Fold this protein.
Amino acid sequence: MLYVGIALLGVGVLVAIAGLLQRLKAKKILGAPVVQTGAIAANQPVAGANGLVSCEGAARAQQPIAAPCSNQPCVYYRLKLEKKVKVKKGNQSTVSWKPVSEHSQGTFYVDDGSGGVWVQPEGLEADLTRTFSGPPPAHLAHLVAASGPGKHGEEILEHRATEDIIPAEARVFVMGTLAAGQITRPLVSTRGRAAVIGSKQKIGAVLVAAGVVLGAVGVPIMIFRPGTAPLCAAVTDDPAKPCRVETQVVEKDRKQSDGSTKKETFREKILTWEVTKNAKFELEARSTSSSPKDSSYPVVQVESAIGFPVNFGLNAGFGSESAKVFKTKTTTLSPGKFTIYVWAQKEGASDYTLAIKELRTETAAQ
């Protein structure tokens, strides 16, 4: 749940930033004065423009072109080709649309009746009119062929062409940088200035609100981790649900099998355990990581008050679960205080669930 909380917070921040950028664009549009196209073409100075100007008028070209799919007359078009692919990974398969290529063409000027001003399409950010979406027409077969047969393990199911245009004589809103009597790096919309401002303000507000909500949900999840075991506090032999152990990376001298000591770096958590009855117990430490590559190899060592081990605390690495789970049984314990050491590889997970259960009477008597 910690990683879920972090992910929600991260996504929330990114969504909020995207919303702020949309609102910033709306502010820029509001700040760019609306100027007659003839005045822009004459390169007349515009007070308060800060390099940005905007205008509205009819989109025209010296010679309109035909859109490649719909054949409609336009001054600019953008054609996007995609492929629907099926990818198999083991026994599972996924289907998704992937981009193949994108083509655009056209030059145009805008005229509100006072004279035309040319718009340079390079770097164009456009809110265009969609005129086609579906299987590519036959005369675009060369674009489909150029997409190739697909990568290894990728099956192409179908292709899709999407066409967006600026229709000839359509009324458009344009905002961009004034340079030598032309508008460069333009924002172009066939919906008009008011619609663009309203859309960006609305989208920005929604994204900012969504980002705040995601962050507000993510932070408590990071802190309280709902659905996970509570932190281990006073550990007793009373029946209880598993608790969570948070280990820390330490560097200590550890005894070796030959009696010598060696400085090692590993994860560790030390807990005090109060036993109130004569019994044997089973202890289990389980990594909370969901990663299949987690190699924690946890170990639980139990020692008496004088430091005498009362279980076999060695993870030999046998079995498919040994990388994440360790189980051990104690000898018959008498009431008193014991120390539980939870150890793991330093590269492993930081958190583990610790479960302690009393063995059945017949088992304890053995």
